[in-house]
Amino acid sequence: MAERSVLLKVDNVTLKFGGVVALDSVSFDLYQGEILGLIGPNGAGKTTCFNAMTGVYRPTSGQVVFDGQTVSGKKPYEINHSGIARTFQNIRLFPEMTALENVLVGTDSRHKVSAPGALFGLPRRWGHEEDLPEVRAKGGPDRSWQEFKRSAAKFFGVSRHMQEERAAERKALELMHFCGIERAANEQARNLPYGSQRRLEIARALATEPKLLCLDEPAAGFNPAEKVELMDLIKKIRDTGVTVLLIEHDMRLVMGVTDRIVVLEFGRKIADGAPAEVRDNPKVIAAYLGVPDAA
Amino acid sequence: MTANENTVTKKKKRSFADRWNGLPGWSRFFWIMGGVIFLFYLPELGNIPGTNLEIPGLGFLRTDVGVGGSDWDSILFRCAVFVLIALGLNVVVGLAGLLDLGYVGFFAIGAYSVALFGSQQSPVVKLLRANFDLAPDWALAWSWCILLAIVLTMFSGVLLGWPTLRLRGDYLAIVTLGFGEIIRIIARNSTITGGPDGITAIPGPEGAPNAQNKYFSILDQKWWYWLALVAVLVVILAVRRLENSRVGRSWLAIREDEDAAAVMGVHGFKFKLWAFAIGAAIGGLSGLLFASQQAFIDPSQFNVNLSILFVAMVVVGGAGNMAGAALGAILLTYLPERLRSLGALEFLPERFQDPAEFRYLLFGLAMVVVMILRPQGLLPSKRRARELKDRAQEVPVNG
Amino acid sequence: MNFDALFDHIGQHTVDGLAKGAIYALVALGYTLVYGVLRLINFAHSEVFMVGTFAVMWTWIGIGAGNTPSIGIAILLLVLGGLVGAAASGGTAVLVELVAYRHLRRKNAPSLVFLITAIGVSLSLTEIFGIFTGNGERKIQGMPTILNQSIAIDFLGVEITNLQLIVLAAAFLMMIGLDQFINKTRYGRGVRAVAQNPDTAALMGVNKDRVIVLIFALGGLMAGVAAVLWNMRYGFTRFDIGFVIGLKAFTAAVLGGIGNLRGALVGGLLLGVIEVYFATLTASKWEDVFAFIVLVVVLMFRPTGLLGESLGRARA
Predict the structure, then answer these.
(1) Using CB atoms, which residue from A95, A111, A141 is nearest to B246?
(2) How sure is the predictor about C295, in pLDDT bands with cuts at 50, 70 and 90?
(3) Counting one residue from A and one from B, how many pairs have CB atoms under 8 Å apart?
(4) Do B263 and A56 lie within an 8 Å CB cutoff?
(5) What is the pLDDT of residues B6-53, one digit of tens each?
(6) Does residue C10 register a pLDDT over 80?
(7) A touches B (3+ CB pairs < 8 Å)?
């Protein structure tokens, strides 16, 4: 395998809550363009590791270096802007928003326009066909109205804010299509079926244009057929150039999709390697199956 | 996609909001224009302008029909100013979900900025004249006062928000409550603000208050109402733009799940601060209108109860929904006046017939009852879901 | 800044401040008790105090207490006033809980709804007393002076009046009583259990509703005692008296660590003392502004207060 550049370096990260050591000097690297599995028994510290990486917790010691920058200690939104996106183990969508709006919140992280831009509609740009609203009605007053709006937009120019909004909606719908949930665009997120909610979380995270996507048990509660579809989706995401870090319990899924696996137990890393190696590692087997003390 | 949605919509009962959003754009536009024209017509309510004819029924709504009723135009003006306040506070409470109990502070700052810099009688103007060699009748022009009021209130909004917006919601409420009180104490205790005597001769669009003014005179309040109405309409447009933008989405995201929003790249503090500053600016604008119309202010007009009244307007009407907030403001301003002019209050002892006497009690009770029975308010905010549905349909889906 | 005035009589100012702060501390206990168990700021607590001052005033006027009676009768009036005030304030607090908060809790309402309801209750109570007492004139209402103030102790030039002694003694007695109640009795154990984990406590057979009524009653009781001390000290009341006292007591509770009973005491006394210092340094008209600045500074730099939060763990 050719040398690949390191995208994320978790370097000796320790995290303590009071007396409890949730992560104990965990180190691993994540290479550009791979799918890395992070596995371990319940309570091994996988989600804690995610939280330390995405700024929800600040590591007690050690650091997380992403794309050449130290991100540990930064605010969650700053870490997101630098290119790490994630989903949550217990789904955390914005339940009152529609699915589309949820994804739009994700796209907003790349937007520049803030309150003044939205209020005053500045700066404006003239003469770009793709910025103008479309005329879609066949005829009647609807068509006249749309034509009127189009010519008004042509005359006054289109603000940066409107350009961003139109582009964001296009992109959001594309992403939802990519994740296979475009039908649900206008449903309230709370009303979506469980599987679609998981996929919507992925779409929302992708909308922030991440370099690294962290998926926290995306297949929890899925049936085997859905798991296969999800595996395909994860591979498709990787093929678009996004590196993926995956927490998962289902060994078949992990073995089938990942390039490399890191195993945690009681907050420590116990193994790191290709799926086949890890599967045969006695420590891993012991961690998962339990071993009598004498052995 | 379309078939699926149709079945979904058919199942639900079509509410007014659904029907409204189902109308084509041009039709909505004409309805809105009609509504705006009606609002401008309100001072003449019941009469056909330019004639002596009356439209039966409509005149009944006026507050000056009975004995002892209040001047209809003044009530309209007061309604408009309170609607403006409710719209501003709605940005803070309804959209960003921050309970601001010191909104009267911004109202007061807006009022005092026109009073202190625009009035011939103000100590600040006198001080500036003396120190900067200005003309003896110099004072800041009213139009500059608008700008000044907005800048000052935004600045004070940021100043208050910067340290406090990181606090938990209930602490924020108390700190803002204290802020409102402090502004009043400063206004009362400083000599530079005119102290407890307040400030007179506050100018309006036509300059210092004068019975000879052509439009904005003390006798005829119609133009004041129209001025406030214009301000309300401008603010509605502005807030709508914000709601339907990245800013509005961020507010909603913060309200629903602040941590998840942060992980999705939403800079919560920044947008909360924007909400505070924008809300403050609108509060300042309404304070300016109020002070100009009154032509006189003193600190006792800005007590804490007023802040709570503002919150009551928003939450009783329906926080998060501009129509709801406006309805709350109108109900709580208009109803007591109308009841009085009806003579409906005559069964009460004389001193209770003045609505000002028991207004706050009613508001307090209304807040409790509404929160227990209908915490979302009378006109709750229907999420922008339907509206976005229309917009999404106009966007082509690739592939 | 008049530093000479402060440092020449620093002992005297400290004693004055402590006596002032003792009343804040008693009111602060009400905020702290409710917050410790419900994680909710009971905005209406300031009005619970206000109702107490009125009840005490009416009692004294009702039984025809004259100005500055003899010391024995004064003590009798004080105790009687304390009982009536505690009953009135405690009753009001429980009523507020039963009429308003309980319904919201059943619906698991968000905290914004609680806050707004509490503000509504507070406004209603203020207005009821504003409209229906004192002919609706909304003026200060005076009452007979119960105690003839005299210097009881003169220690190294620090003069402590009999009134200050009574205020401090009463406040400490109430504090010790509350501390014993919360830590030593079965009911107190229930309170601590609910404060630590309401759901587990309910599973273990603690009646949560009863505990909540109890803490409202206790908070009201303390406010009632504060009310009688206030009446003795200042000799007047007013329908909107609760606002300023409430803001200061809340500041005191936050200063000491809201939810922590000892914190309320420490915070109250401390706030009283620094307020007197500050008023000596500048002018007393800025006193109310100062309490607020203290609040903001504490919240910014130590939001959990000096002694930390938590009613469950704290030894009150």
Answers:
(1) A111
(2) confident
(3) 150
(4) yes
(5) 444 444 556 777 787 778 888 888 999 999 998 888 888 777 777 777
(6) yes
(7) yes
What residues form DSSP beta bridges with B29?
A: none
Q: What is the pLDDT of residues B305-317, one digit of tens each?
A: 888 889 888 888 8
| DSSP for residue A291 | -
In terms of Cα–Cα distance, which of B186, B183, B233, B226 is closest to B204? Answer: B226
Cβ within 8 Å, pair A118-B399: no
Count up the domains in chain C and report the number: 1
Give the whole-angstrom CA distance, residue B211 versus residue B213.
6
Spell out a b/e string for B240-262, using b for 16 or more CB atoms within 10 Å of the CB, else e. ebbbbbbbbbbbbbbbbbeebbb
**Which residues of chain A lie closer than 8 angstroms to B245, CB-CB?**
113, 115, 118, 161, 165
> What residue segments make up the domains of chain B, in order of their start?
73-303
Report yes or no on A16 lying in a domain: yes
Question: B367 and C131 in contact by Cβ < 8 A?
Answer: no
Total domains in chain A come to 1
d(CA A212, CA C205): 49
For B180, counting Cβ atoms within 10 Å of its Cβ (0-12 exposed, 13-18 middle, 19+ buried), the class is: buried
Q: Is the pLDDT of residue B345 over 80?
A: no
| Structural domain for C46, as ranges | 29-241
Whether B331 and B316 have beta carbons less than 8 Å apart is answered as yes
Query: Which residues lie below 8 Å from residue A262, measured CB to CB, with a gap of 6+?
Result: A28, A36, A37, A38, A39, A269, A271, A272
Best probe of the B interface among A57, A175, A186, by most B CBs < 10 A, is A186
Angle at A111 between CA A107 and CA A113, to 5 degrees: 140
Write down the H helix ranges in chain C: 3-8, 10-38, 45-62, 71-96, 102-106, 111-132, 162-184, 186-196, 198-203, 208-234, 241-256, 261-281, 287-301
- The rounded mean pLDDT for chain B is 83
Q: Is residue A89 part of a domain?
A: no
Segment 260-279 of chain A within 8 Å of chain B by CB = none
What CATH number does the domain containing A23 carry?
3.40.50.300
Assess contact for C206 and C193: CB atoms under 8 A. yes
Q: What is the mean pLDDT of residues B50-65?
A: 74
Within 8 A of A50 by CB-CB distance, chain B residues are none
**pTM, two decimal places:** 0.86
Chain C residues whose C-beta sits inside 8 Å of any chain B C-beta: 40-41, 43, 100, 103-104, 107, 109, 111-113, 115-117, 119-128, 131, 136, 243, 247, 250, 254, 285-286, 288-289, 292, 295-296, 299-300, 303
Q: Do C115 and B170 touch (CB under 8 A)?
A: yes
Q: Tell me whether residue A244 is in a domain.
A: yes
Alpha carbon of B171: minimum distance to chain C alpha carbons (Å): 8
Choose the most confident range, by mean pLDDT, from B84-88, C183-187, C206-210: B84-88
Q: Which chains are within 8 Å of B by 3+ CB pairs?
A: A, C
Asked if residue C315 is part of any domain, the answer here is no
Average the pLDDT over B311-325 and give the result. 86
User: Look-up: residue for tokens 């939060």?
Assistant: C309
Q: What is the rounded distance in angstroms from the CA atom of residue A7 to the CA atom of residue A29?
A: 8
Distance in Å from the first CA to the final CA of chain B: 14
Q: How distant is the Cα of B306 from the closest Cα of chain C, in angstroms? A: 11
- Candidates A97, A113, A147, A208, partner chain B, best to mutate (most B CBs within 10 A): A97
Is B241 in Cβ contact with A186 (below 8 Å)?
no
Whether the pLDDT of residue B258 is over 50: the answer is yes
Pairing between strand A61-66 and A268-273? unpaired
Task: Point out the residue among A95, A98, A208 whose CB comes nearest to the CB of B264.
Answer: A208
Query: What residue type is assigned to position B274 of the chain?
Result: W
Domain containing residue A24: 6-83+210-289
